[in-house]
Amino acid sequence: MVEIDLLDMEGKIKDRFKLEGKVFDGTINYDLMHQAVVVYLANQRSYTASTKTRGEVKGSNKKPWRQKGTGRARAGSIRSPLWRKGGVVFGPKPRDLYKELSKRMKILALKSALNAKLKDNEFMVLESLNLNSCKTKEFFKILTNLKVEEKRNTFVVDSLEKNLVLSSRNIENVKIVKASDLNTYNALDCKNLIFTKDAILEVQNRILKYL
């Protein structure tokens, strides 16, 4: 069983929090984490760029002039890629870049990411994260109390409360993620991964189902 400091919003230690030993066992699979990140980023791409070939652009297929005797270069169609407004050779076409990874592999990659964050001391657990108003100043004060105001931070919460979302959206390098939506990319794409107590319990339960 791994223990970590349980902090309040003022950055003070309130208690010790026990992490699930089966989840936080120190095992880090770097290859699986890399694979999960590649799949995630690939699936974010739409790749809708499209150009027209000589067979798709408007224009006649009639030969513009006779082959010989005009003094001009040979031409067979005004849709030739050599001509202005002609077709494009080897231009981009829409492609399906979707990749798949099994649920178990995704969960094990997330487990590795959490262990990596804990190993690097970039992992925090807060007792709660409740704001009385939607003021940016109030949320920034929490960052200052935790001494993470100058770094990239991902806060993982059990539910997206309105005050929390509105007060944090104007702060650069801060991301709010629901525990049910946390993935390997979100866990690694930050300097500090900060959970609420309820959120880490939910994430641990997600992972335990596949162990």
Task: Explain what the structure shows.
The protein has 211 residues and is of the alpha/beta class. The chain has 2 domains: 135 residues, 3-Layer(aba) Sandwich (Ribosomal Protein L4, Chain: A); 51 residues, no CATH class. It is 32% helix and 15% strand. It is built from 6 helices and 6 strands, in the order ββααβαβαβαβα. A 6-stranded mixed sheet has the order 2-1-3-6-4-5, with helices on both faces. The two termini are 16 Å apart. 22% of the residues are buried.
Q: Percent range for helical residues?
A: 25-40%
Instruction: Count the beta strands.
Output: 6
* CATH homologous group name of the largest domain: Ribosomal protein L4/L1
Counted by DSSP, the helix tally is 6
Are there runs of 5+ residues with pLDDT below 50, and where?
A: none
CATH class of the largest domain: Alpha Beta
**Any idea what the radius of gyration is?**
27 Å
Structural class comes to alpha/beta
Record the SSE blueprint:
Elements: E1 2-7, E2 13-19, H1 30-44, H2 103-119, E3 123-126, H3 136-146, E4 153-157, H4 162-168, E5 174-178, H5 184-188, E6 192-196, H6 197-208
Parallel strand pairs: 1-3, 3-6, 4-5, 4-6
Antiparallel strand pairs: 1-2
Which keywords apply here?
Ribosomal Protein L4, Chain: A; alpha/beta; elongated; 2 domains; 6-stranded mixed beta sheet; 211 residues; 6 helices
